[in-house]
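Thread: "does anyone have the structure for this chain?"

Original post by V.I.:
We have the sequence but no experimental structure in hand. Need at least a predicted one for the grant figures.
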Amino acid sequence: MAINHSSQGGIIIFLSVIAATALTLVPFPDIVRLLRPEWVLLTLIYWAMALPQRLGVANAWLTGLLMDLILGGPLGVIAFAYAFAIYFVHVFHLQLRQYPLWQQAVNIFVLVFVLQVMLVLTSIRTAEWTMILPSVTSMLLWPVAYNVLRGVRRSFDVK
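Reply from O.Q.:
Generated one for you, tokens below.
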């Protein structure tokens, strides 16, 4: 029996976003919680960059709405930030794919920092120097997330 890669790919992408959501919800002490990378956004960025036809702005917006509900913030804030980030990735995905991982990581820093600024402007978080920490950890963990998700994509032949 032949495997339908189209439906399998959607399931793999969905499961990777669920796994990233679970990583986001793992409880940590306050000092470690400040360093938590934006796992869901990293996952969305990877799939939007690797397979832009499979993950669009609407998917990012719906995922962001789910995160707004889960995290208890104003509805639409994270959704807008995710949609903005994925729109940027869609516009520049061909260029982003050509960059070495360290240069992609710098772009990740900027996108996550924009998310943090949006959260501060909508009063979900306060403006402190610690707001830069998720951007830094997301940037540093981008090569790991990229290689893990690329391995998943290749193992399950997601197209």
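V.I.: this helps a lot. Residues 99 and 105 are 9 Å apart (CA to CA).
O.Q.: and The first helix runs from residue 5 to 25.
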